[in-house]
Write a structure and sequence with these properties.
Elements: H1 17-36, H2 41-53, H3 62-68, H4 80-90, H5 96-103, H6 114-125, H7 133-142, H8 147-164, H9 171-180
Helix pairs in contact: 1-2, 1-6, 2-5, 2-6, 4-5, 5-6, 6-7, 6-8, 8-9
The protein binds fe (ii) ion (FE2).
Length: about 180
């Protein structure tokens, strides 16, 4: 079960109710894929925890995020992933794949294994987002059958959307695209 009420978050998490519902949908989608792909229990747990914790600081105040990640070159929207990874590491989380998935989930990372790639897809394909519903539902259904091909599609979609809105592209996002194109 991954309904919003049953999602367990650390005491330092800062999420409002809408965010908690998003986290629950992302986690449910990751568990659905993990079960369809018959992943080993440890990898299934890594996917679940990446989903459960990726946005734990998404609604934290900017001062709190900047105190955790003192890099003035980063816009505020990119701080919550690295900040959550730092808090998890301080709390004893030692799974590098889980930490890297969370740290880079907003911009992507070319050296990700499956945990980061699965989270990047689930964050974009979860059914609560209102744009491109049928296309995203189709991609979500493809993940267990063609993980790498669907990941490539999701990277492309997210890149096109960022370009369409005139956003800055981060070098790590460009490197991710170059690694899968
Ligand atoms: Fe998210």
């Amino acid at each position: 079960m991954s309904d919003a009420a049953s999602i367990e978050l650390p005491s330092w998490a800062r999420v409002d109710e809408r965010r908690r519902a998003h986290i629950a949908r992302v986690t449910a989608l990751l568990l659905h894929w993990a079960d369809a792909m018959q992943l080993p229990a440890s990898e299934r747990a890594a996917w679940r925890d990446a989903g459960r914790l990726h946005d734990a600081l998404r609604d934290a105040p900017e001062e709190e995020l900047r105190a955790l990640i003192p890099d003035p070159s980063l816009p505020v929207g990119l701080l919550h992933g690295p900040a959550a990874a730092r808090c998890l590491e301080s709390a004893g989380e030692s799974r590098a794949e889980v930490l890297d998935a969370i740290r880079w989930h907003t911009v992507g990372c070319a050296s990700w294994g499956r945990v980061g790639r699965a989270l990047y897809m689930a964050d974009y394909l979860e059914p609560g987002r209102t744009f491109a519903r049928s296309e995203r539902a189709y991609l979500a259904a493809q993940v267990p059958h063609d993980f790498d091909g669907t990941f490539r599609q999701v990277v492309r979609h997210r890149l096109m959307a960022a370009l369409g809105e005139g956003h800055e592209l981060w070098p790590t996002t460009v490197a991710l695209w170059n690694s899968v194109r």
